[in-house]
Amino acid sequence: MFQLSSDLHRRQFMASSASALALTMVSQSTLLALGNDVQTMTLGFSTYGSRGITTEEVIPLLAKTGYDAVEITSTKGFDAAPENVAASRRKLIRQTLDDSGLKLTSIMEHTSPDSNQTVNDANLERIQRAVGLIRDITDAKDVVIQTVLGGGVWEQKRNLFVEQVGRWVEKTADSDVTICIKPHRGGGMDNPEKALWIMKQLGDPSRLRMVYDYSHYIYTGLELVPTVEQAAKKTAHIAVKDTVRTSDGKFRFELPGSAGTINFTTLIKKFYALGYRGDISCEVSGMVWSKPNYDPRQAIRTCYENISEAFRQAEVPRPNHAAKSGS
After folding, report:
1. What is the number of other CB atoms lying within 10 angstroms of the CB of residue 295?
2. In whole angstroms, what is the distance from residue 290 CA to residue 145 CA?
3. Is 1 within the bounds of a domain?
């Protein structure tokens, strides 16, 4: 097991990570650092918001709507959880992706480090099974696996986070995937600074990056542009949705662009200016899709209309979509 407290183990981890990097293709974020000439960002949708529609069915729907990319949710209980996707389905999903022209940019998991080692072993198994799913459904080399790290007090949980995140990176060193940790409102790791701290403790491995999602920072005293500037170089995936402060002082999430609380044009434009060339993924919160009248097909259309307009206003190009002036 990877241990933060051992300098020797840390050096061994860093050495193994460096060796794995030399043997595999570099990640999207590394390509950016080396001057990758990709000049577009993709607009995607996470199947976290398409419950009730199978993965094979939603991919063509997303392509027809106009999206460039897809994040497939493989969290336990979801349609594309690895245990639900037999070999025949994996072949079908691969073919469906190929036919659609959509790029698979991310797999969403949910693996929270725990004081119980049995839980941690199960988390690692889920991460490894997600790697296997990626290998079976795409040849893309820059897919990320993203996860939150769960609740708790940062000062009490941070060493556990480092230990387990380091383990995930170490045990997937024979793959091309990047592990992405997502700061989450109310979580033990709830802002970019804490994600950067975890990376630093692990020697900043190239296959460890963060998910940027401003919906978890708004109303916490963190401003949009400073957090983008802080996170951009270590961000490999961006999720977008709106956050609304309710009358009782709590918060609720809404479809991206529907509440107007976050300036997604500024977000997209700033990330692009700082060199980010990954995905902007529309994420529908469980607060939204759990409502009795939720319509995933309408949500897919609404998200596309709102965030494609933000791209247009930002004048940021997408694959097969020429950037148009927002004026």
Report:
1. 12
2. 24
3. no
**C-alpha torsion 177→178→184→189, nearest 10:** 130
pLDDT tens string 139-149: 999 999 999 99
> Is 122 a member of any domain?
yes
DSSP structure class, residue 69? E
CATH code, 133: 3.20.20.150
144-166: average pLDDT:
98
The span from the CA of 139 to the CA of 253, in Å, is: 34
Longest dimension (CA), the chain: 57
Q: Which two tokens stand for residue 145?
A: 């696996």
- Residue ranges making up the domain that contains 196: 7-12+39-314
How confident is the model over 58-107, as pLDDT tens digits?
999 999 999 999 999 999 999 999 999 999 999 999 999 999 999 999 99
Question: What is the total count of domains within the chain?
Answer: 1
146 forms beta bridges with 108, 180
- Residue 295: its pLDDT value, please? 97
Summarize pLDDT for 240-280 with one digit per residue, the tens. Answer: 999 999 999 899 999 999 999 999 999 999 999 999 999 99
**Is residue 237 a contact partner of residue 280, using CB atoms and an 8 Å limit?**
no
Whether 319 is covered by a domain: the verdict is no
Residue 145 to residue 247: CA distance in whole angstroms: 36
pLDDT at residue 306 is higher than 60: yes
Burial per residue of 142-167, b for 16 or more beta-carbon CB atoms within 10 angstroms, e otherwise? bbbbbbbbbebeeeebbebbbbbbbb
Could you identify the residue written with the tokens 């769960």? 150
